[in-house]
Design brief:
The protein is α/β, with parallel strands linked by helices. It is built from 15 helices and 15 strands. Helices cover 47% and strands 19% of the residues.
Amino acid sequence: MNKLSAKQIIAVDFALAAILSIYWLTTGISTEQGIFIFLSILIAGSPISYMLARVLPYWRAANVIEGDDVSVQSAKIVRELSYLDTLLFAKNGTLTVGNPYISDIVPEGVTKSSLLSLAASIEKDAKHIVGRALYNAAVSRGLRLQHSSATNEIDGKGMEGMVGGTAIRVGKMNWLKEEGVEISAELLTKHDQLAFHGKIPIFVANGKRARGIIALLDEIPPGFMTAIRRIKKLGITTTVITTDSQRTANAVKKELSLDEAKGGLSKEEKLREIKLLKVAGKTVGMIGDLNRDQSILEVADIGIELIPKKVEPFNIHKVEVAGVEEDNKEHFDIDPLFPPFIPNLTLKGGLASLIPAVEIARRAKEITRQNLILSYLSWLLLLPFAMGFFVAFGGDFLSADSAAIGVGITILLIFFNSLRVH
């Protein structure tokens, strides 16, 4: 429902006061009485009670929600939270711990160590959590990495680079197929099996042939399943959107009993999914990583950060790459012209802390509805008397003082009713 603005109410109120006071002046009342009629109508039709009715409950709710477990950006976000009906999750670092480890290595024509070493050689500068996990796994096992050049990280697909004059690609099956890489039937079958069990299968290709799969597993944080069940009881649809394969997304959906799962999505496709939901009239909350999912969080009605962070900082290792020692440092490029996105809602107490926040926001919405009824009743009771509708029946005009008292009582009722948000 479209809400009236203060400017619209003031314009209508002023027009009514002017028209009615001029009308009564034409009936023979004094100029002084006409001025008092103008003031009475202006006060009785004031938008103050209406505006306070809409904002006080959400201001109160924002103060109640703000605490050790939850931080909310503004009362406007609390209003959005009261209408939340769709909650989207980025998978890595949100629905999972965010610290993936290698669970399976399936080589083809090479050894397991050689396959991991080959993949890690071009993942040294990777920003994606999977690439960093591969690199750190190779480092922790003491593998000797080869020098790489012309490395390029392709969002939502994988990493490519040159090692010893040969193109090396580490990434998703569909991307490798697009690049003309030959994948054996045995590896394709193994890929489906690993994805079915919720693992992240990553292909490693040397030239135009896939040399094996490295599968990673990222565990579900404790307490998540209980929190998801409670969120669904609030009538909120839960969906995981991820760049991982649809099979992996389906496995996570099944494990957490989510409503929907959409896998194999690029960043642009994730943005399109959110925009489509908003066009359909949904109020969308998005939980994701501030570094990887900033643009997606900005598009959602409520961008949510989930902490404490599940991703532990990677240690700095001295790694021998083609005989040269180099530092492994995790870093992110920061553009000073575009400051980091500030989350609308920060869940410092884990996913479960979202539930009381939603309940408080919905309580504020109900209190707002009650306050608006009080505001409408104030107009209904005061304006007819101020306009002189009952003069013909022996009544009198409402004085400006009485109109102010009536509006003041309404404001007090709205104020004390808003305090019931807790």
